[in-house]
């Protein structure tokens, strides 16, 4: 079937925007023990009185750096509701709650003895029987209060003298206090002749590099009040596993008169070999002398980007070519590598000086595994760079050599936990006798998810080679092909070489679209098109862990539909207090079978731009969006004179069809079904995931659920609702702004029985329901190509 019908944007109508209604249960939670409240209040008051004495002593010596205490909160009380009660005790006129630590402990800054006094008065209410329920709940939710001491993340046995340290100061959420702490830290180092320099990770991270450090230096630094964390400064190395290859690849030349996209290659440099020279821009970025540069890795990455389809003789990307901007952010790979802060500084500078380039490929990583809870400073820095300069970084998930010693593979590398970027894993194109991975399974070296806080990373995968060991335990590659720095054909393997395939798809999409640069849309389109290879017969959680949402389609297939399907895009900004509810969602009536049940496949992809807060540990993502798509019986009038009811129209018998519980367990477990490469059915629950995807087949409902929710007549609805964490709600309140988050939602409805022209039918329904809609705008030369 021909694929030439453009996907569509549609807009919510005025009445589709609703106000969030109040509600909630007023009963105290099960963990609440009222009898313990006075004892806890007394204990907390005593701890704070000691803090107050320390603050007074410090201020007599002109030390105005706040003290930080940490609250160990009852695990069941970490919910947003009870954070609010805690916050009301510890916030005075200011926001004293400054974030979460690694162990989900709430961090509180205290600036003065007066503040301790105000907090103590609130706690003292807990000693009275007549105390308000909110105060009692806040006190009961806290298990313990203690002073915060710097976290030391250094192995004394492996630590060598003259190492570089990374020292992170608290972010107090107040620019003036941060400046006071930074100045004091610099004086502290000067007085002790500690060799320090300030780094620029992101505006929210106050990080210093300390050079020529010893164990004594660490002991001294621990005494500074504002230090949150001391660790070794991570170093980054690039490895290029390669084999000589043979065979000629014809040189591609840019066509005169064609305006090609530009992709920035954040790497070790690009050699001016005949195949790449015509595509290399004259401008470049480097901080290194040419003697300190080895362009092998960057050349191999660029070769895959421009010639990936030709090398593998497949239409993987359908990419026509791009101009390459060489950004040398990595020196010659000596044993020294490059320190984290230097690499981040180079990336920031390369992008900020060239932010007209919107797509960047970063096939560099670290062998340090991402944390299970805390997002890495490198990832946070990449997020800030992308947000500030409105760019998209395609980032490799990282390689892991654990397969060589037959141990489980590592999780994604630090820096691959970027929220704003698109992170790429690797799959094997084929399997040889020594290879460890099956065809189209995750490559044995490809790092896996999840990221911190169960984040789905990588989001996407592509081919990057296979590997194994021979009978003498030597590494044997089954590579993908590219160029060496001398221009020869080379076999290579790694997530470094799956990533440029995704960069080329994203750049190709951006170039064909006439929509202005839109990173959310590009991410959403790429992920929405992704499918799992038919060979991958494992449970969905294993698929997500190894491949993310799968392998994307080529550029042409992403932008165009067949007659038996339609793809609709809703892109909007959701403010706190509002949600979108469309009660006339245009599901085609022709997709009702002879027994009167709705059928078809529905694929839904949501990509959000969450509010991020670097001080909040596992709660780095401060906002979330939920999507419900389903059926209901009829619209109802609601009594808005009743308490808590704001919206005059409701729905009866509504059911969200993206719910796990509706589908037959035996069908979901059947990995042989032809539908398994499409199926993504995940219970996201309250996890703050910036990317979510559901792909469901209505034929897989249990018989009773079919009867209840798919038997015609039924109406269809779509609901999109935002959720904001307490910390960001409070911060926004103090700044007098309304928090909001941008999202891009893509829905494809497909008639797998090929009985109807779904594209035309849904387009007519959009008209009859008065939706503003339009085909995705394409550049003129694309329309001409299609007509031909």
What does this structure look like?
- This protein has about 800 residues and is of the alpha+beta class.
- Helix content is about 25%, strand content about 25%.
- The chain has 18 helices and 38 strands.
- Strands 16-17-15-19-20-21-22 form a 7-stranded parallel β-sheet, with helices on both faces. A 6-stranded mixed β-sheet has the order 35-30-37-28-2-38, sandwiched between helices.
- Helix 7 (about 295-310) packs across helix 10 (about 500-510) and helix 8 (about 340-350) runs parallel beside helix 9.
- The radius of gyration is 28 Å and the shape is globular.
Mean pLDDT value: 89
Please give the number of β-strands. Answer: 38
Structural class: alpha+beta
Unreliable segments of 5+ consecutive residues: none
The outline comes out as globular
Helix content: 25-40%
> What is the topology, as strand order, of the major beta sheet?
16-17-15-19-20-21-22
DSSP helical segment count? 18
Strand content: 25-35%
Computed over alpha carbons, the radius of gyration is 28 Å
Biggest β-sheet strands, sense, barrel: 7 strands, parallel
